[in-house]
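Model it.
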Amino acid sequence: MDGTLVDNMHAHTEAWGKMLAENEIEMNAHDFLVKTAGKTNREIMPTVFGDISDERSAELGNRKEMLYQELFLPVRKTVEGVVEFLEEAQKIGVRLAVSTAAPVTNVEFILDGLDLRKYFQAVVTAADVKEGKPNPEIFLKSAEKIGVEPKNCLVFEDAFGGFEAAHRAGMKAIGITTVNSAEDILKIDSVVEAHADFVNLKPQELIEKYLPQTEKAGI
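Modeled.
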């Protein structure tokens, strides 16, 4: 979802910076983004704040998400071509799932705020898994929910942890370059293509190209 359906990782990074500054912690924005993308808040907090209680972790996470939504709301929109791609996928019967490390409030902020939920048969969030990416659990659970074998799924991702998760799940991945360059993304084993957006992506063409032996596929 984040960095794939919407180009919002800059807002997340800025929100983390503001929240950490409030707690007198400095961060390198780029390094922080690369290291934490795809991870859940409950995984990130101990790496920054050390041994803190679950209550304190949740409090800090809620503060960060409030800052993020304030920052992104004025510019909230989908990555170019996303809606057309989803509509075409839906039209030809492709089963679709969102696999995101985001908390439920952020999922609602994006999927409901931009009226995207209607395209997806399943939504798997941080609340549904024990570990975020690069653990493949979130993709495997998504595949299970839409009733598609992992080998018959294509993953759309922007983060290195997500690409690793796709590889470990036995899935091919399409890279979206909202965070990382196409050159760097294409070095990853699971990645078969990389694009700036969805404008030139066609669901049927991708299925025929990368899932030619399947009777049903999932994205």
